[in-house]
Structure formats: C-alpha cells, structure tokens
Specification:
alpha/beta; Rossmann fold; 4 domains; six-stranded parallel β-sheet; two-stranded parallel ribbon; 22 helices; 53% helix; DNA-binding; ATP binding; DNA 3'-5' helicase
C-alpha cells in the first residue's frame, strides 16, 4: 500500500503520533487517510487490538472512506473500524439501550418552532434570519446571556424543542460533548482517530476531538487552512490547526503535490490565496505539468453572464464532453438553467429543498407520524398551528403531564383556555382519534385527506396553504406506511441526470 504514496503521504501514513497533514487541493488526502487506516488495522490484526475511528463531514464521504479502507484492509477488520460524520457518531453516543429513538428536528421543524417562539416573544423579522444566531450559540456550547435578546430567544427555542420531544442537529454534538465532560457518556474507545476536512471544525467539533485525544486516542487530522470557507459558521480554520499542533505537539506534514490541476490553474489559485494573512506556509506543485488555461471576464448582468458561460463551453459540449459550472449561490444558477433550456442543452442541477424544509410540510409529516404511532411526542407544535399559545400548552402539560388527552370543555376553560380555543382543542383530539382509527385499518388515503383538510383550515397564509398542498401531493404519490413515505423524503437523491453535459 505504501508504494502507491509519495514521500509526504507515506510520512503521514507511517506516523504513530499526533499528526496534522496540511493537504492542498488534489493532494490525495482521502487516499492517504484510507491507506493509514488500513495499515493501522492490519498491524493489529493478530490480536484485534486497535480500534480506528474515521470522521468526515458528510454521509457520502464517510461511506466512501469506509469502503476504501475495507477494500485495502479486508473485510475481517470491519468490527474495529468506526467511520461516520461528527453528528452520526454523536447520535450513537446519545442513544440509550431500549430507549425511544431520538427525534431530530428537520429544517422545517426548526423554522416552525422559531416562528412560533418569535411570535410569543413579540419579535419581528424572519425566522430564517435568526437561525445563524441559534447555531452560533450552540456551537459555543450553549453559552449565552439569558437576559439578552439572543439568549432569551435561544432559551425559548430550546424549551419549544423540549416540549415537542425533539433535539436539533447541533444538539447532538453539544449533548455528546457535555456527556463526555461530565462522565455520563464514554468517549469511543479509539486507539487511533483520523479526521478529514479539519479546517471546517467548529469549537464544538474541536472539543469532541480533543476529548478523544485526552482519552488516549492518537489523532491524525487532515485539512487545508486555505480551503476554510465556513468562518461564518464558526469554523476554526487556521486557528484550529495551529491550536492542535501546539496543544498536542502534533507533527505537521505538508502534502503539497496537486494531482488534479495543470500548473496554470494551480498558479492562479496560489497567487490569490497567498494574500491570506493567517495561513500555514506551503509550496504547491502541479504533478500534471503545464497545459491549463485561466480566463477572466466581466458581464453586464447575470443573464448575459450565463449566456457567455454556456457559449464558452460550446466547443467542449459539441464534442459531447461534460462540463461543470460553479456559482457562489444557488440563486445565480436560475438564469443559467434558463439558458441551458433555451439552447437545448441537457443539464443537471443539484437538488433543491424538499417539502420537509418548509415548516408546514415538516409539521404535517410530524402529525402523520403521531397518527401512525411512530412518534409519541411533537403534539405541541401541532396544537400551536391550531392557535394555542406556549402559556396555554404549559398549563395543559402541568395538568395532564407529558401526553395530552381529550378533556371536557369546562375542564379546559378552567385551565385557562378561552372557549373558542377549548372547542378547537376538543375538535382536534376527536379528529386525531378518528385518523388513528383509519390508519390502523390502513386507510392511508382517507387519513391523509383528513389531515390535509385540517391543516388547510388553520393555514394563515397562501404560502402555508401551498406548502401543505405540495406535501399532500408528494405523499399521495408514494406507497407504504406514512413512516416509509416520510423516510423516503428525508433521503437525499442527488444522482446526476443521465446524459447531462452541464
């Protein structure tokens, strides 16, 4: 395996101490990590000693890395390899034997809860605009001033999540770190831990790695401070790499050989990135040699730019070659898509948001899972759609406990619900029982129709009604139980369109 590596890659693979591999673009870092993991697993095969962890930032990357390691090391080492994303590994740490699976809030769930929290607090603005504030607080271990506007919003949002029996994506890592710090959760028993795309780690992810290093894992991190683009998400970038080197006396190794680009492409990128003030010095080498071409042009607007981009690719497209166009934001691709259609060019555009990214779509799917008995929590968000306030919901829970049930109108009014709200609550509970009965008899179409009708009745905006109808349209075209249909929607299908050239 080592024969396929260059001297710098080989050094990383053979080091048995904390190591920071600074890998330029196209440096073969995945190959290096996979080879090192395979070597570590093979070296200890006789006594089944070493447990190797491999952490990446995306599910697809984790699957690919795992497959490459097992292909090189052999299937016999499978039980000693733990590969996944930060969040998937944290999720497994949080799971308790025999406990109900954790309910992770979708993007739509988060938006829906934030909209209601902002209404309760009398805040103006869009829920989408405060998500970065919530994420920043969570990335910094949930530390906030409870008296500040941001702190008040964060705590109210966390309360809403808890009342609906949910945690969100970032809670997984925060709770795992807090558990390891308090001793209620054990770190993974890694002998060695390999971390990819280290420049993108935020303080919470860094702490997760640090706790495993302090528990005895020998850590190799691979990344490129020049490729750190997530500072707005609190990514540590250069600071994180320098901190790891200093804290753990890690050996830095620069992987400067680029196997992807021609010299002209690499030189242009190098001239630009050298202007970064905080960066690790590195010499880049294009192993493919000369032969590339870089051209820069300005255009009057995005549509003219899109036409120019497609026409510039014309000679390559005429030969049937595939090409790629990158844009800074998804919106910029709209005129490009229109130009491709006008020119009759087959193209593939990465999939956009699903119905679950809309609060109404996520809420409707949650309600269907409650109806089907897949979930026992989450009813608070549904009742908030009905019009109940957080204060009214707390009063109901104080009287009934975690699970809300049908009650008489007089009892509900005595708990502080206005008569109209009490009537709506009773009507909903009656309908919920009817939907559950229909679902038990596998009358899914009738159940879906009833839930859609009820959701539409309380939709306050045209956009909400359209989102509900779109969710109904999508679910009605699928087969199986509601849980099976919704799980299908949660899976991302990002396969290229057959025959696409762009």
């Amino acid at each position: 395996m080592l024969d396929d590596l260059n001297p710098q890659q080989r050094e990383v693979a053979q080091l048995r101490q904390h190591c920071v591999a600074i890998a330029c673009p196209g440096a073969g870092k995945t190959k290096t990590i996979a080879t090192k993991a395979a070597l570590l697993l093979q070296e200890s095969a006789a006594n089944n000693a070493a447990i190797v962890g491999a952490v990446t930032f995306s599910k697809d990357a984790a699957i690919e890395l795992r497959e490459r390691i097992l292909k090189a090391a052999g299937a016999a080492v499978k039980k000693r390899l733990i590969a996944g994303t930060f969040h998937s590994l944290a999720f497994k740490q949080l799971q308790r034997p025999g406990a109900r699976p954790l309910d992770i809030a979708s993007d739509g769930d988060r938006l829906g809860l934030l909209i209601r929290v902002m209404q309760e607090l009398g805040r103006e603005g869009k829920a989408e605009d405060v998500i970065p504030t919530i994420e920043k607080i969570k990335t910094n271990f949930g530390r906030c001033d409870p008296q500040s506007e941001d702190g008040e919003l964060y705590l109210a949002y966390q309360d809403a999540l808890a009342r609906n029996g949910k945690i969100d994506f970032q809670d997984m890592l925060r709770l795992a770190v807090e558990g390891m710090e308090s001793g209620t959760i054990l770190p993974y028993p890694f002998t060695y831990l390999l971390v990819d795309e280290f420049q993108d780690t935020d303080p919470l992810q860094y702490r997760w790695i640090e706790l495993h290093a302090k528990a005895g894992a020998i850590v190799t991190v691979v990344g490129d401070d020049d490729q750190s683009i997530y500072a707005f998400r609190e990514a540590l970038g250069y600071r994180g790499m320098e901190l790891f080197i200093q804290t753990f006396e890690a050996k830095p190794v620069v992987l400067g050989s680029n196997y992807r680009c021609r010299a002209e492409i690499l030189a242009a990128a190098d001239r630009l990135i050298r202007n970064n003030v905080d960066r690790i010095a590195k010499v880049l080498r294009a192993e493919k040699g000369a032969g590339g071409h870089v051209q820069r042009s300005r255009h009057a607007d995005e549509y003219v730019e899109a036409v120019a981009a497609v026409e510039a690719l014309g000679p390559q497209l005429a030969k049937g070659r595939s090409c790629a166009i990158l844009a800074r934001t998804n919106r910029i691709l709209d005129p490009l898509e229109a130009v491709c259609r006008t020119h009759g060019i087959k193209y593939y555009r990465a999939s956009g948001p699903s119905v679950l990214s809309r609060p109404e779509g996520a809420l409707m799917c949650n309600l269907l899972e409650i109806v089907e008995g897949v979930k026992g929590t989450g009813l608070d968000a549904v009742l908030a759609h009905l019009g109940l306030s957080a204060q009214q919901l707390r009063a109901l829970h104080a009287d009934m406990g975690p699970e809300l049930t049908q009650r008489g109108r007089a009892e509900l009014v005595a708990l502080g619900l206005p008569e109209e709200v009490a009537t709506n609550y009773r009507e909903f509970m009656k309908r919920l029982a009817e939907w559950q009965s229909l679902c038990e008899r596998t009358f899914h179409s009738l159940t879906l129709s009833g839930v859609t009708e009820w959701m539409m009745k309380y939709a306050k905006k045209d956009t909400a009604a359209r989102a509900i109808q779109a969710t109904d349209d999508v679910l009605s075209r699928l087969n199986g139980s509601f849980a099976e249909r919704i799980n299908l929607l949660r899976q991302t299908n990002n396969e290229p369109t057959p025959g696409a050239l762009i």
